[in-house]
Amino acid sequence: MKKLIIFALMVLFASVAAAQQTSWHGYVSQGVTQSSGSHFVTDNEAITTELTELGINGRYQFNSSLALVGQFVYLDGGNRYEQGSRLDYLFLDWAVLENDVMSSHLHVGRYKNHHWLYSATRDVPHTRETAILPQSVYFDSFRDIALGSDGVFLQSEYRSGVGQWQFNWSLGRSDVSEEQTKAFLGPLANGSSKQDYVHQVSLYWQPDSLNWRLGVSYLASDFYYEAAPVDSFIDGSTQIERLVLSLQYFSEKWELSAELLQERRENRGGISPTFRQERAGEGGYVQGRYLLSSSLSSLLRLDFYDVDKNDPDGHKLNHATGGRVPAYFGYMDTTAVGLRWDITSNWRLQGEHHWVEGGGRIQGVVDPSTINSTEKYWRMWSIQLMHWF
Amino acid sequence: MAQMDRLQIADNKIKPFLLKLVIVWCTLGMSDSFAQTLTIVTHANVSQTAFSQSEIRQIFSARKQFWDDGSKITVFVLDPNTAVHKQFCQQNLNMFPYQLERLWNQITFSGQGDPPLIKHSQDEIIEAVLSTPGAIGYAEESVLEKLRGTQRNNAE
């Protein structure tokens, strides 16, 4: 599979270099970052340059209805995710239908997740509001699986008398690396995780004025874990269902974005053959950006997440683990502020500071080292310079 | 004269719409810069000469990327910070420039298409449209009129 991907990328970029019906774009970004009171981004309060994002994409247009597109990225986000290069997407884009009122595109290959507000370009620094997205919805331990998958994606847009409708549907699966398994289950997990499938559907509506955008999306996915011969876990499986409501409002001087999430998770096995746990987490964020001038804007965001909606303060979690896991791992609430300066039309300097209470989105399963390194109240910040072309 | 012959000014459906909106904006107390009428300009090889507002929105928001004959659409716009671009976005696309930019970036970096090309003046847009097959752009009626006048003088 890897050889096939490399070959397809070579064909794509060779075509980009040689042919007329091609285009390419890219971005480069470097930042300085720190997490204090937690190892979420950096270890031991260190201020580091572990905030690097590079990407290059190409599009080869065979004809007006068929194109091959791909993007290759290099990412370093500190402890938030695995450092290194990734094939972000590589798919055939087929314009199935195009007319005055409707258009439909089918993407076959490694497609992008277009179901949430920032999911499609989560790794593209100048398309998102902050370097660290609201963890309630954009949980970094889950990120590589939520970015996109190998399979098919369909997007249809319909322009009616009451506004514009966008329908998205996708079915695929993603590889889960050893690093991602550890990020999700903790460093004691020596086995391997696999995703059976991820099935997503979403619907967005915008009135003709285009100043509102409302959406609803649903995700269903199955994972299983194969334990290693020497492992703290045994074989197990997880079923996840996710419902997200999205809202955006655009005004001349300010904009509002909000997403609300409910996530049902059923774990089987893993700890013991008869272990079964079902819980529903919920959360969301609301953020406002105010345009101070045409090049300067400020941001305020409130983000909250309860690991179990029936245990919002984490007391049951603390009790169930015999006091081993502090109650504040049952939730994570964050207040973030940011400032953005658009130096030119393709250069930007962006800074942000997050005040966090709780550790509910630090890791999928809490392990002793995370407990020791995470205080109830902690902070993180970053300053990032970005350029795109 | 040859240059003017190659310049197609779309006598389009949105023109009366624009005039109507200009009046609305004026009564809302918008600045004088908003009182200019914008006109869609296309390259001579573009056979379409009338556009609905929906089509304009699809083209300039990078949703429609090919003409009906299958040739590629190349879109030229002014820098997003300019008053003319702001007027174009608000009056014709029902968007603020930052909304449009975000849409372009999302489309470009998720593999769905290419963004418009940015020019620094209306003269540059007109020149680029004239020399690029399949191109479309916009300019103020007064700028186009001035160009027509120059061409007439040169012809005489």
Write the layout of secondary structure elements.
The complex is a heterodimer of chains A (389) and B (156).
Chain A: H1 2-18, E1 22-36, E2 52-63, E3 66-76, E4 84-98, E5 102-112, H2 143-147, E6 148-160, E7 163-173, H3 178-185, E8 192-206, E9 212-226, E10 236-250, E11 254-269, E12 276-291, E13 296-306, H4 315-320, E14 331-344, E15 347-358, H5 368-373, E16 377-388
Antiparallel strand pairs in A: 1-2, 1-16, 2-3, 3-4, 4-5, 5-6, 6-7, 7-8, 8-9, 9-10, 10-11, 11-12, 12-13, 13-14, 14-15, 15-16
Chain B: H1 2-6, E1 7-9, H2 14-27, E2 38-43, H3 53-60, E3 74-78, H4 83-93, H5 97-109, E4 117-119, H6 122-131, E5 135-140, H7 141-155
Parallel strand pairs in B: 3-4, 3-5
Antiparallel strand pairs in B: 1-2, 2-5
Keywords:
heterodimer, A: 389 residues, mainly beta, Porin, 16-stranded antiparallel barrel, 5 helices, globular, B: 156 residues, alpha/beta, D-Maltodextrin-Binding Protein, domain 2, 5-stranded mixed β-sheet, Phosphate-selective porin O and P (chain A), signal (chain A)
The CATH superfamily name of chain B is: Periplasmic binding protein-like II
Shape of chain A: globular
Distance between the termini of chain B: 10 Å
Mean pLDDT of chain B: 79
What features would you describe in this structure?
The complex is a heterodimer of chains A (389) and B (156). With 389 residues, chain A is mainly beta. Helix content of chain A is 11%, strand content 55%. Chain A has a domain at 95-102 and 125-388: Porin, CATH 2.40.160. Chain A has helices at residues 2-18, 143-147, 178-185, 315-320, 368-373, and strands at residues 22-36, 52-63, 66-76, 84-98, 102-112, 148-160, 163-173, 192-206, 212-226, 236-250, 254-269, 276-291, 296-306, 331-344, 347-358, 377-388. Chain A has a 16-stranded antiparallel β-barrel. In chain A, strand 2 and strand 3 (66-76) form a beta hairpin. Chain A starts with a helix and ends with a strand. By secondary structure, chain B is an alpha/beta fold. Chain B has seven helices and five strands. Chain B has helices at 2-6, 14-27, 53-60, 83-93, 97-109, 122-131, 141-155, and strands spanning 7-9, 38-43, 74-78, 117-119, 135-140. The radius of gyration of chain B is 15 Å and the shape is globular. Chain A: Residues 1-19 form the signal peptide.
